[in-house]
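USER:
Working in pairs, take the chain set out below, taking as long as you need, and write a paragraph about the fold.
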Amino acid sequence: MAELDAGAKAPDFEMAGEKGPIRLSDFAGKALVLYFYPKDDTSGCTKEAQAFSALAADFAAAGAAVLGVSKDSVASHGKFLSKYDLAIPLGSDPDGATIERYGAWVEKSMYGRKYMGIDRSTFLIDGSGTIRRVWRKVKVPGHVEEVLKAARAL
C-alpha cells in the first residue's frame, strides 16, 4: 500500500472496542488522533498510552479525540486499560486490516532478523476526514505533546 501523507483522505475503518464497534465516521466533525502501537503492556506502548491519557482532557479541549490501535484483542485492551487506568479508547485490529490501510504494517529488523510488525505511527485527521499530519517511527518522549500542539493548531 502507498504511504499516506498529509492531505490524503483518511481510510475508513471499523474495529472492535470495549464499548462496541469503532468507526471513522464516529469522529465526523471533530479531529481524531489515530495512533498505532505494537503491543499492550510493553514499556514503550505503556508510556505512550499513559502520555495520551495524561493529556486526554487537553486533547478534548482542543476538539480532538484519541484512539490507540493494535492487533491485541479487546480482552487484552481491557486488562491494559484497567492496569494503568488509561483514559483513552483502544481499538482491536486482530487481522491488521486498518493497520495495513494506514501503512503501519512494515518490515522491521532486530538482531539481523527481519519480520513484519507495527510501525509506531500517529495520524492527525481533521473533522472532514483529511489527514493533516503524519508521524512515523515515533519515539515516545515528547511525541504526545507535539501531537497536542498540532491538534490545537487545526
